[in-house]
Design a protein that fits this description.
Helix content of chain A: 25-40%
Largest sheet of chain A: 5 strands, antiparallel
Strand order of the largest sheet of chain A: 4-5-10-6-7
Number of strands of chain B: 5
Radius of gyration of chain B: 15 Å
CATH class of the largest domain in chain A: Alpha Beta
Largest sheet of chain B: 5 strands, mixed
Shape of chain B: globular
Largest interface: A-B, 25 and 29 residues
Strand content of chain A: 15-25%
Number of helices of chain B: 5
Distance between the termini of chain B: 30 Å
Number of strands of chain A: 14
CATH architecture of the largest domain in chain A: 2-Layer Sandwich
CATH topology of the largest domain in chain B: Ubiquitin-like (UB roll)
Order of helices and strands of chain B: EEHEEEHHHH
CATH topology of the largest domain in chain A: Uridine Diphospho-n-acetylenolpyruvylglucosamine Reductase, domain 3
Oligomer: heterodimer
Strand content of chain B: 5-15%
Chain lengths: 268, 164
């Protein structure tokens, strides 16, 4: 790992100022992806801005029909949260399935969505539930936020402050983890919302998380696993690597989607 | 160089580190607490697990400076020299929960964290899921699972050591 200047600002304004003043600065939330990346010298920032002490990035709050989660809230905190368990149990379960217990004690929701790893779990929930990402500048809808492989709508000096999830009618997340790395080969989040159904897939797309409109239309008509039995997801745009070929991933998406629908129906 | 102040196994520590110094490097190299091991250095094997503010973390995937002001407990903090072993350590000894012993410090720190979160009566599947981030290349895990179940029961009602 190359060395860097370490900063630990106390508030958002100071963090944003540091980011603006140092062109090659990077923000660090839990560091569970960034530190391994630094070790491999895939990133070599001049300055590292640790968000641990920044005010206002913690806490989970029910706000009417929404649950707002601070950017620095860890996966373990989401998994253990009574508020999340009651309002969106599928989200707590998703958080409980990320990495391992030690990683979940450090990794954060803000870090995960800002990094937008194509195999990360959170982007599927954010996109399927139609969440909003709040930053120090604005609110960004999930549909506008994820821009491709490790790419988001965030500007260079923008900092994620929270993620706000609308409470769905029912929802579930199912993933098929790689047996060794436990990263999703395909993960599908299905959300039945007040007015529509949304299906988002992670782990399988070459450009990261994506929706499956054909499944959404079919589930909107009737929310049952049978409704999507005959829907085939095309191989185009899916990842083919040593872990799984595109056709296998396409097949997994169908299986995980049906299991997610069944789980969502059972959950309520 | 930046200065860092923290508590390690109940002792106040103040030292200088580089920005890039990992917590595990601070523990092993600056403080000579070599019970915490580095296995994979890629946050997969769990040999470097320590407790930071009461929670298990991988010390190879945390900067030393991130532990500023924190309370860190390593395997050495469970049973200071001459003191009886911690119930979880004793359970690993009784149940032959180790062979080469390289992964054992991380296994034990992870196991105690699991008991703190899930209580003293742990079934096999809870233990196995709890060990997701810890690898052992000797035992085949059977005796580790047995050790943790026994250690969890033995920890019941026992006051935890001050440092842990």
């Amino acid at each position: 790992m190359y060395n860097f200047n370490y900063h630990r600002p106390k508030d958002l304004a100071a963090a944003a100022a540091l980011l603006q003043a140092n062109e090659n600065a990077k923000l660090m939330a839990g560091g569970q992806t960034l530190i391994p990346t630094l070790k491999q010298r895939l990133a070599s920032p001049s300055d590292l801005i640790d968000l641990s002490d920044v005010d206002g990035l913690s806490g989970i709050e029910r706000k009417g029909k929404h649950v707002q989660i601070g950017a620095m809230v860890t996966h373990a905190e989401v998994a253990a949260s009574a508020v999340v368990r009651r309002a969106i149990p599928s989200l707590a379960e998703l958080a409980e399935g990320i990495g391992d217990p030690a990683v979940r004690h450090r990794g954060t929701i803000g870090g995960s969505v800002a990094n937008n790893d194509p195999a990360a779990d959170y982007p599927a929930a954010v996109l399927a539930l139609g969440a909003s990402i709040f930053t120090n500048k604005r609110e960004i809808s999930a549909d506008d936020f994820f821009k491709g492989l490790f790419e988001t709508a965030l500007e260079p000096d923008e900092i994620v402050t929270s993620v706000c999830f609308p409470v769905p009618v029912k929802a579930a997340y199912m993933k098929f983890p790689n047996p060794a790395s436990r990263y999703a080969l395909a993960g599908v989040f299905v959300a039945k919302r007040a007015k529509d159904v949304r299906v988002a897939v992670t782990g399988a797309g070459e450009s990261g998380v994506f929706r499956v409109p054909a499944m959404e239309r079919a589930l909107d008509k009737k929310f049952a696993a049978k409704s999507i039995e005959s829907i085939k997801v095309g191989e185009e745009g899916l990842v083919s690597d040593l872990h799984a070929q595109a056709d296998y991933r396409a097949h997994l998406i169908g299986v995980m989607a049906r299991r997610a629908v069944e789980a969502a129906l059972k959950a309520t | 160089m930046p200065k860092i102040t923290l508590t390690v196994n109940g002792r106040a520590v103040s030292t200088e580190v580089e920005g890039r110094t990992l917590l595990v490097e601070l523990l092993r190299e600056n403080l000579r607490l070599t019970g915490t091991h580095v296995g994979c250095d890629t946050s997969q094997c769990g040999c470097c697990v320590v407790h930071v503010n009461g929670k298990a973390v991988k010390a190879c995937t945390m900067l030393a400076l991130q532990a500023e002001g924190a309370r860190v407990v390593t395997i050495e903090g469970l049973a200071p020299d001459g003191a009886p072993l911690h119930p979880m350590q004793e359970a690993f000894r009784q149940n032959h929960g180790l062979q080469c012993g390289f992964c054992t410090p991380g296994m034990i720190m992870t196991a105690i964290d699991l008991v703190n979160r899930e209580g003293n009566d742990l079934d096999d599947s809870t233990i196995r899921e709890g060990l997701e981030g810890n690898l052992c290349r000797c035992t085949g895990y059977q005796n580790i699972v047995k050790s943790i179940a026994a250690g969890a029961r033995a920890m019941k009602g026992k006051k935890r050591p001050a440092a842990a």
